[in-house]
Amino acid sequence: MDTLFSMVVGWAIDSAMVILAATTFFSQGIAVNDLSTAADTLAPILGQGARLIFALALLAAGLSSSITAGMAAGTISAGMFGEEYDLHDRHTTAGVLLAFTAALVACFLIKDSFQGLVWSQALLSLQLPITIFLQIYLTSSRKVMGRHANALPTKLLLLAIGIFVTVLDAMLLA
User: Fold this and answer.
1) What is the mean pLDDT of residues 11-40?
2) pTM assigned to the model
């Protein structure tokens, strides 16, 4: 539930920012190539508080994504040793620290934050079909889920969603 909550919060914030930026910049005919230009451009159009709200929204989205990534890495690390997610366990902690260390290294290696944001989202979209189909496989497996495994109609619906996302990804690459 906590992962679902953090993902929904991140999605809502990201969606609100994209919709706001797209409508604001498109209606004004403004091309935005970096985050500081986006923030600077918002103030005259939407008021002085817009820059602060934009910054806070970016921070909230980043925190939400970071928490989700850390929890996912900790869960995977603990699961590799047959354990439950527990921050007091060394395997969970190692996974969380590894994820945060990799993110920190990436922050130091990326010179242009806007391009870093674009590349991170592109890479995330490329791995999404893999994650979707792996989750469908695992949640449909009687061996893994027992009596809670997906029923055939649910599995077919999930496969249709996975195929749809994969097609969208292929179109993005093309």
Assistant:
1) 73
2) 0.58
